[in-house]
Amino acid sequence: MSNESDQYHLSQELNPSHQADVKAVLAISNDMIASASRDSSVGIWTRKGDSGFQLKTLLNGHHAYVNSLAFIPATDDTDAYSTKFQKLISGSWDQTARVWSKSSAEWTTDVVLEGHEQAVWGVSIVEEGPKAGCFLTADRMIFLWNKEGEVLQRFKGSPEPVRSLAILPGGNTFVSACNDNLIRIWSFEGTILDSLKGHKDYVYQVTLGSQGIDFVSCGEDHTARAWKVLHPCQTVWSVSSLPNGDIVTGGSDGRIRAWSEDKARIADQATLDAYLNVVKQAMPSGVVGDDHSGQAVQPTKLTIDIDLSDDDPPVSLEFEVGSDPRTTAEAFGNEHGLSENYINQIEAFIRAHLD
After folding, report:
1. Which InterPro entries did the record assign (predicted)?
2. Quick check: pTM over 0.70?
């Protein structure tokens, strides 16, 4: 994938912001975006002429963080894809995924997908191929469901949480993004066809690109790739590509940002200068340079989510690159009363992130 970092500039920061991290953004069309947040809501945004995207409605129903979104376009093929309905699938910390549809002005839950043992991070829809109409969801395991909500197959996705899923064109393969910094390409039989390296920390989302880009990913290393678009927040949770080539990102600061290479949609220079100043103030020393080379940045600090129990959200462990992994693991373990075996696992986890 080529690096297009010099071509993309801020188009808009969407207002109002969510009340917590924006964990997922989804470009439904050039004029509609969906967002999901740790504030338990799903936002629907529509473009209003020259004023850009505005909040159309907030969807509520999840009882914990909403981590992911996928859109099912309406078609004439089956009753489930009637042109009378548009559907969304969302995944949550409540260990379920929900399929939503809109009738008149109301959004309602069609199917609740239950069976995961941990938070559901990744969701996707199979729109073509032999599994067309099925759903994919993931915690550490990847589940394949039929449209009635029955489990067809389970794959061992990764030793760490699988954060995102995307179906590749043709519907015969799919892609996963994971906490182990890797992007994997899978067959629907559960075979890993390829593993892609490049991110320096957690990969939070992978999504299909447009205009010649196979897919786009984003993560804990301040970047969205194939384009390196710097953010003031360390964690870029989600990225999505619009049909017109623009991209939209969601970050840990609760902000949704649209980016474009089309001069007609790029923000004015005063807005761009103000944004770059905010980025420079937020980034570690030496990360924002003047050459805009687009080269990968080595992180100075790693933030690693550690699961202490199945019932509570993970606790963040901050590791300063260059310090001793064992010392950090022991300090964290002593603080939270963890066993020696668990401390050993945390040390190994830190070292794996440094490799």
Report:
1. PFU, PFU_sf, WD40/YVTN_repeat-like_dom_sf, WD40_PAC1, WD40_repeat_dom_sf, WD40_rpt
2. no
Least confident window among 89-93, 196-200, 234-238: 196-200
pLDDT of the residue at 290: 36
User: CB 71: neighbour CB atoms within 10 A?
Assistant: 17
Q: What is the pLDDT of residue 212?
A: 53
Q: What residues have CB less than 8 Å from 178, skipping those under 6 apart?
A: 157, 158, 160, 161, 162, 163, 184, 202, 203
The residue extents of the domains of the chain are 9-282, 301-354
For residues 224-248, give the mean pLDDT. 79
Which secondary-structure segment (H or E) carries 347? helix 340-354
Residues 6+ apart with CB under 8 A from 297: 200, 221, 222, 223, 287
The reported pLDDT for the residue numbered 76 is 39
Pick the CATH number of 9-282 from 3.40.50.1820, 3.90.1210.10, 2.130.10.10, 2.60.40.10: 2.130.10.10
User: Which pLDDT value is given to residue 65?
Assistant: 87
Topology, domain 301-354: Ubiquitin-like (UB roll) (3.10.20)
Q: What span, in angstroms and rounded, lies between the C-alpha atoms of 98 and 224?
A: 27
Distances (CA, A) of 34 to 9, 70, 210, 211: 21, 9, 18, 21
Nearest of 256, 253, 238, 352 to residue 304 by alpha carbon:
352
